[in-house]
Fold each of these.
Amino acid sequence: MIGIFDSGVGGLTVVKEIFKYLPKYQVVYFGDTARLPYGTKGADFVKKYSAKITEWLLAKNAKVIVIACHTSSAWAANFLKSKYKNAPIFDMISCASGEVLRSTKNKKIGIIGTPGTIKSAAWEKNLKKLDPSLKIYVQACPLFVPMVEMGFTKGQVAEEVAKEYLKKIKAQNIDVLILACTHYPLLENVIKKVMGPKVKIVNPAKSATIEIKNFLIKSPNIEKNIKKGKTHQFFFSDEPYNLEKISQICFGRKIKAKINDPF
């Protein structure tokens, strides 16, 4: 199986890309809804529960781990890769950085995410290592997550909030905007409308999925051990809010969820 975890339902946007680009593999998903949001938690907390979830997914026979949560990608990715050296682990930040660099023409990059992701500066650090000449502008958008989970993914309310959050970044004449939160792709059409056609929107979930696909092509010994088929499993540590609406948006159908808090 491909194991995917997030702090809540937002990681389903990553599952959506997995289903699109890697449709033959089984997925086991864990959303830590009992402890969300991770975006306002400290680094130690995020590392602790990211490790617990990773161990749980490995025990569920996951052969590849995907850190869908951007806050976990920021605070815990290096920690997890060091702790679980025998497990291929993919995070949103390292997987998408290459696409960002290939996409920018003027080297002005915008990043929007949760307060935790923005505070970590993990995206900026990673991008600056690859190209120190980049100019990077960031904006925390904490209302985007509850908006998505309440179903406000389009319309006047979504547009007005997006305009307020994005106005400073838009004024910097960026040509690439990174959606540094799993919920944000569900607002992509609104964000595109606000930013205009000249700004490339990067969805790291897509970048990560393509990198996983390439990895599996080059790693047949791992690939052959991943279960195939459509029997996917979705676990949440507490009753997920508005799951039916989010799953309909992502997959066009309701998913069967199991409530299980093993921690």
Amino acid sequence: MFINVYIGVNNGFSDKFFTILKITQPFIEGRLIKRYKRFLADVQLSDGKIVTAHTANTGSMQGCSDPGSRVWLYDSKNPKRKYRYSWDLVEDLSGNFVGIHTTRANRLVHEAIENGVIAELQNYINIRSEVKYLESNTRFDLLLSKEDHSEPCFVEVKNVTAKRGTDIAIFPDAKTERGKKHLVTLIDAVQHGFRAVIFFCIQRSDVNKFKPADEIDPEYGELLRKACASGVEALAYKAYLSPDEVYLNAPIPIILNE
């Protein structure tokens, strides 16, 4: 579905070459009828046909699942899948594109690290995905290490789609026990001498800062503050999105306390 191409972009911070996930399989446009059972969405295509698409997002999708919204699906063309279509992109009621596919966030961050986009995570040679942490049952999205596999760094990626007000990205958009477990384990990683990073990949470009969603899950907000005070690093980057391409293009500040 994607290929990588590289272009020079001035993002106001520096001139860098950014990873772009170029859409090689055309999206199928439609209108959202409803999202239900968390993983399903009924969509009416432009030809009037109604299909049920898989939705790879476990959150509430606050502001991203209003009936009537323009959405874009891709066809897996996999006869073994129960739902051959997957919902990937939505245009919210304010006209902003939002990437709702959570696994894309992992790939965006992975490739941005490989290509030196994320200044805070440069000079790592080895990148492994879905790595089990010590003897626990927790897996982190990425494990980075230097050329000789030294100085390991665990990275947990969170896909951010919700916003508050006009320009504040927020996470989570629903109570998240899994997210809190990851923070606890990141704290443990720091205590064991590892570098640990919580990375908020914001798949929307209409925001300029990030805050924890205390109004939705106050325990997560408090735990995030505790994690950062304990040495866990928090990073937030936003993406540019369109039906043709998507790429991380700018870090934004994280505001933990008003």
